[in-house]
Amino acid sequence: MIWLTWRQFRIPAITLFALVVAFAVLLAMTGPGIAAEYADGIAACAQQGTDCGPFVNNFLNDYQTASLGVSAVALVMPALIGLFWGAPLVSRELEVGTHRLVWNQSITRTRWLVVKMTITGLAAVVVGAVGAVAVTWWASTIDNVPDNEFNRLASWVFDGRGVVPIGYSAFAFALGVTVGMLLRRALPAMAVTLAVFVVVQFAMPLLVRPYLLPPTDATVEITESTVDTFGHNMQNGRSTVLVEGQAPEEGAWLLSARTVDSSGNPVEAITLPESSTACTPGQSATPEPGAGMKTCLAELTRLGYRHELTYHPASRFWPFQWIETGIYLALSLALAGFCFWWLRHRLA
Amino acid sequence: MTAVLQARGLGKRYGRHWALSDCTLDIPAGHVVGLVGPNGAGKTTLLNLASGHLTPTTGEITVLGGRPGTDPNQLRKVGFVAQDTPTYAGFTVAEHLRLGARLNPGWDDATARDRIARLGLDPGQRAGTLSGGQRAQLALTIGIAKRPELLILDEPVAALDPLARREFMQGLLEAAVEHELSVVLSSHLVSDLERACDYLVVLVDSRVQVAGEVEELLATHHRLAGPRRDPDQLPRDQRVVSASHTDRQSTFIVRTDSAIHDPVWTVSQLSLEDLVLTYLDSSTRVAPRPVLEVQR
C-alpha cells in the first residue's frame, strides 16, 4: 500500500517539493546579504555617531516589497497543498472508478485510507515546516528591526512565520481530502477546497485570533508619544479635538483605542469648553513647532481625558503561534476522523 | 458443497427507490454462475452487496460463509472485477501486477505473468492506452492471480466487441477450471453466458425469478402448444411460467419435474435464451399459484 501511495503521489509530491526547495534555496541565497547590509548600515551610523533612523527607514522601504512577496508565498503554499495533494487524493479515485479496483484487493478500505492520508499528510507537514523555517529565518533581520509600526501579530507576518504554516498545511490537506470525498470529483473539489480555505484564513485573524488570549486593557495619559493621529476643528469658536491612541509598546497588536472622559465614558470627539483656548490655533504663547499640540494635549489631560487601549503585547507572538497551530491541527484531526467515518458509513 | 453466496430477504434502498428487494438466493460452490436480467434489475447492486461495496438495507448476505468485505481475510477469499473493469490509466501493465502483488498476500505472480504473456500485453504499456478488451483482460488477470475462492464479475464483457468477449470468457473458464474457482458473473445478454455458465440466476425488477443449474432448468421447462385452455386446468405439478393465447390456441411454458402425458399438447424443449426471455417478459408471465407453492 505504501508503494501504491507513493506511485500515485510521486508526481505531485516531487513537483511541490521542488518548488519549496527552490524557494528555500532562493531565500538561503539572499538572506545573508540582507542581514549583512543591515548590520553594516547600523555599524556605520553608530561609528559616525549619527541617527540611524534614516538608514532604517530606507532599509525597510527597500525590502518591504520582497518581504511581502515572501510572506505571500508562505500564505499560498498551504493552499497549494490542499489543492493538489488533498483534494484529488480520494476524489480522483472515486471519479475514475479505480477505488473499485483497489478496494477489491486484500486490504480494507480503512487501511487504504490510513496509509494514503498518513504518507501524504506527513509530506504536507514537512513541506509546511520547511517553508516556515526558511521564511522565518530569511525574514528574521527585517522582523527584528526596531520599528513602532510593525507588529508581528498582524496577519500577513504572523501567518508566514513560526509554526503556524505547519498547522495550515495539515489543515488544508485534510480539508482537501474531506471535500474530495464529499464531492467525489477532483476539479470541483479543488475549487471548493480553495474557497473554503481562503474564507477560513480570512476569518481566523479577523474573528478568532483576537480572542485566543484575553487582551490587555490599559488606560494611558494623552501625550505626544501615545497619540497616533490628531485632528482639530473649530466650530462656533469652540475647539473640537480628535485623538487616536497607538499601541503602548513596540510591536503590540492594538485591537481598539478609545478616548474616555474623566468619568470613564467613551467619547468620539472632545469638545472643549468655551473658556479653554489651549487648543485654539494661534493662541499659544510659545512659538516653537509642535508646542501648540503639546499644550492642547496637556489641556485634554487636565480635563481628565484618557486613552483606553485594548491590545495584545508583542510577547504573545509565540503563545499565539502555538495556540493557533494547535487549533489547526485539531481541526485537521477532526476532518480526518470525519473522513474515516464517511468512508465506513456513507461512501459505498 | 457449501454455499458461495446466500441471501435472505436481501434489500437495498437508495432514498425511496429500492434497487433490490426481498432477494433470497442460495448459490452452491463450484459453479460458473450467470446472473442475468435487464438493465436496472439490480444485478450490480446484488454483486456490490456480495463484494462488500454496499451494505444491505434489509436482510442479510453471506459470501463463503462470511460477511462480505469486512475483514482482510474475507477480502482475500473474494475477487471482484467491477463494471467497466477500472484500471489506473497512468500505471503500466507491470505496475498493475505489482499493485496486485503488494496488496494480496496470496498473489500468484507466475500465473499473472503467464497470462499477460499469453495475452500478448506489453508489460511496459500504460493501462490508459490499452483497448477495452485488453483492459478487461488485465483486470481479470488481477482478479485471478489474487487466487480467490470466488470471483465475481460485474458485466465484464458489456463494452467489448464479440471477438474480445469470446476471448475473455474463454480465459475466465480456463482459470475457473485450473484454479477450481467459483465464478459469479452478470450480463444482460444470455448469449454471453450460454457457453460459460452451468448455473443461472434470473433477476427482474430487483427480484429473483428463477435460479438453478442450467441442465436442470432446461430439463424441467417445456413449451406446450395446443387448443386454447385456461392455465388453471393444467395439472398441479406443472407450474405455469408464462401463457399466451390466440383465439383458438394456447402456448404455455411450464416447469415440472415429471413427464407430460397429455396428448393434446405439442411439447418442445426450450433453449436457454428462450427460457431466460420467458422469465424476462413480464407481459406473459403468470404469477405462481399460491396453492401450488404451499404443496411443493
From TrEMBL, chain A:
Residue spans crossing the bilayer: 69-91, 112-139, 162-183, 190-208, 325-343
Keyword vocabulary terms for this entry: Membrane, Transmembrane, Transmembrane helix
Species of provenance: Actinophytocola xanthii
Provide the protein name: ABC transporter permease
Source domain of life is Bacteria
TrEMBL record, chain B:
- GO molecular function: any one? ATP hydrolysis activity
Q: Which residues form the ABC transporter domain?
A: 5-230
Looking up CDD domains in the UniProt record yields: ABC_DR_subfamily_A (cd03230)
Which Pfam families does UniProt cross-reference here? Answer: ABC_tran
Q: Which UniProt keywords apply?
A: ATP-binding, Nucleotide-binding, Transport
What domain of life does the UniProt record list for this protein's source?
Bacteria
Q: What is this protein called?
A: ABC transporter ATP-binding protein
Source organism per entry reads: Actinophytocola xanthii
